[in-house]
Write a structure and sequence with these properties.
The chain is of the alpha/beta class. It contains 14 helices and 17 strands. The strands form 3 sheets. Strands 6, 7, 8, 9, 10, 11, 12, 13 and 14 form a 9-stranded parallel β-sheet that branches. Helix 3 packs parallel to helix 4 and helix 5 packs parallel to helix 6. The chain is globular. The termini are close together.
Length: 448
């Protein structure tokens, strides 16, 4: 659907549910939020307050339907936009084979803008329909096609952070899918940043410096991108310690881990997002925390390609900024609801262990499990914190990114049999489907 004014410049009355801290769900029954003309929440009024009474008297008041409630829009911290056509394909091969045989040939086709337009348009529409109001995108090495993705996000109303991928190392990247030189990789990234910032009426799409991962980039490119980050202040995204192969590559090449190497190149900042990060050491975690960088936890795709389970609970306990990613198409689903469910499931597997031949007391890593309340926080508030953006909460000064949930939707998959839905939020998050997502708003505009 086309964008509509939705909640902009209006007050909205309903029940709002968000997760300000991991494990903490705040339910604001019969609250009213006021959204300004730019899509920012200007006031949140609790029931029974003078502010609530004043907002309730506004002529432009909108009311969420009885039985429905509102949650923040989902924040997907890791999406490979060009890989959408191969969703669910070839997940039975090692990562390095999957890249060389399937992924790089597909990404090379995005030099064709007609090819790119059809697939990117469908991707953005599908993610919005699933409640992903903010997505952090890897595009491809092609500057024009990467800009096209940014334009489609803007046109459809999604908050997009888009990166033209830098990949120039001939040892890891085929000649049909790599930058011509370190100078070209950095220059094209610089030009792409300027392109995105020059888009007219751009209030929600940001450029991202995107070295694919250390194995795909020469030292000259990594150093050049680090200098560019210092100049432009952009977000940074890359893969970090995703698998045994990727993790050992940096150790062999530099005698240090991915995190340490990225930091040495100036690529570890408050606006850096590290996808996967399964094999972070305690020293790595301390470094990531010290820099204020974030981790995109991709529980579902890690199951296929990471060789291990990310120690999410340990990272949270150490104070790292963490959100969730679907990792299309290493993960075979673009649904953030599925990302939440996988996050809970794999944490329990790490906690209890998986090998029945081992004794129970030595089978797992005790204390590793998280629940759906934590996963919900990571999919919303946590993603906003990791990106250093005012999203993921219903608070004054935050963007009005929201999903109206209808547990009783006729074609939905939630079955509460008349129970109060607010007493069963975790059940709804476990069982909801697309039909239960009644409306999607980004900065107050209705986009799906």
């Amino acid at each position: 659907m086309a964008k509509t004014a939705g909640w902009r410049g209006r007050a909205v009355r309903g029940t709002f549910v968000h997760a300000p801290e991991p494990g903490t769900i705040e339910v604001m029954r019969d609250a009213i939020i006021s959204v300004d003309d730019a899509g920012t929440i200007s006031e949140v009024a609790a029931a029974g307050t003078a502010a609530h009474a004043a907002l309730a008297g506004r002529d432009d008041l909108m009311t969420v339907a009885q039985g429905q409630f509102v949650i923040p829009g989902f924040v997907d911290l890791h999406v490979h936009a060009p890989q959408y056509p191969q969703l669910g394909e070839a997940l039975d091969v090692p990562l390095e084979v999957w890249l060389g045989k399937y992924t790089f040939p597909l990404e090379a086709r995005y030099a064709d803008l007609d090819f790119a337009r059809e697939r990117y348009t469908q991707l953005v529409a599908d993610l919005l329909r699933g409640g992903t109001t903010t997505a952090l995108y890897f595009a491809t090495m092609h500057r024009d096609a990467s800009l096209l993705l940014a334009e489609i996000c803007l046109d459809r109303g999604q908050r997009g952070l888009v990166g033209k991928v830098a990949m120039d190392d001939a040892a890891s990247c085929p000649d049909y899918c790599r930058d011509a030189s370190p100078e070209a990789a950095v220059a094209d990234t610089r030009a792409f940043i300027a392109d995105v910032r020059a888009l007219p009426d751009n209030d929600r799409v940001l450029p991202v410096v995107t070295p694919r991962f250390i194995p795909a980039c020469t030292d000259e490119t990594l150093a050049g991108l680090g200098k560019l980050v210092a100049e432009c202040g952009c977000h940074v995204q890359t893969h970090c310690s995703e698998s045994d192969w990727a993790h050992q590559h940096a150790i062999t090449r530099y005698g240090m881990t991915d995190s340490e190497a990225l930091d040495g190149f100036g690529l570890m900042t408050r606006k850096t997002l590290l996808a996967h990060s399964v094999f972070l050491t305690d020293d790595d975690m301390a470094l990531v925390k010290a820099r204020g960088a974030g981790v995109a936890h991709c529980a579902l795709s890690n199951t296929y390609f990471a060789n291990a389970v990310f120690p999410l609970r340990r990272a949270l306990d150490k104070g790292l900024n963490i959100g969730l990613g679907t990792d299309i198409s290493g993960g075979p689903s673009g649904s953030m609801l599925e990302a939440c469910r996988a996050t809970v499931a794999v944490s329990r597997q790490l906690d209890t262990g998986v090998d029945p031949k081992l004794a129970q007391d030595g089978r797992g890593v005790a204390g590793s499990r998280v629940d759906m309340r934590i996963a919900f926080h990571l999919a919303t508030t946590g993603g906003g914190v990791a990106l250093d953006l005012p999203i993921g909460l219903f608070r004054k000064g935050y963007q009005a990114d929201a999903i109206v949930v209808d547990p009783a939707a006729a074609d939905g998959s939630v079955r509460l049999f008349g129970a109060d839905p607010l007493d069963h939020l975790e059940q709804i998050l476990y069982t909801a489907s697309l039909a239960n997502l009644a409306q999607i708003h980004v900065s107050g505009e209705r986009v799906a």
